[in-house]
Amino acid sequence: AAVVKWQLCTHLVVAAWVIGFTLSSYRLVLLSKLMFCGPNKIHHFFCDNSPLFQLSCSDTSLLWKADSLFISFVVLGSLCLILVSYMCIFHCILHMPSASGRKKAFATCSSHLITLAIAYGSCIVLYARPSEDVSLETNRTVALLNTVLY
């Protein structure tokens, strides 16, 4: 068993905050420059990117590209790391000596993987599409399912 030292833990937390703040602040600067000249009602459950971009009368192509890059880097990157870690876990489970231990470990992992599939699946459906022709009805349905199931 490896013990994570307090200093390493602090560095990881600070790095996560700095990277998250930096990536979010770039998007906030782009969002603050949007002009809105039409209706001011968002037909969604919350103020999400797609409905907000569609209300804007400014050019939102840079924001769509920034969101696609952000999603590719953050969401798909973290998903790849999680899947690699689960492959290592499955490798360890398969080498367990007792069948009951393997069954219990697979049962635990399966519930985690279902949760991951719901969270990442809905996130990919909502945000990983680079197209500007996003159906708001699809977004509302996926957001509702994500809220109810998650």
Count all strands and give the number: 0
Give the averaged pLDDT, no decimals: 82
Helix content: over 70%
Multimeric state of these chains? single chain
Straight-line N-to-C gap: 32 Å
> H/E order of the elements?
HHHHH
How many DSSP helices?
Answer: 5
The low-confidence parts are: none
Tell me what the structure shows:
One of its GO terms (cellular component) is plasma membrane. It is found in: Cell membrane. Its main location: membrane. Pfam families: 7tm_4. It is a multi-pass membrane protein. This protein is mainly alpha-helical and 150 residues long. It has a domain of 91 residues. It is built from five helices and no strands. Helix 1 runs antiparallel to helix 3, helix 3 runs antiparallel to helix 4 and helix 4 packs antiparallel against helix 5.
Q: Topology, please?
A:
Elements: H1 6-32, H2 49-55, H3 61-94, H4 99-127, H5 136-149
Helix pairs in contact: 1-3, 3-4, 4-5
List descriptors.
extended; 150 residues; mainly alpha
In short:
This protein is mainly α and 150 residues long.
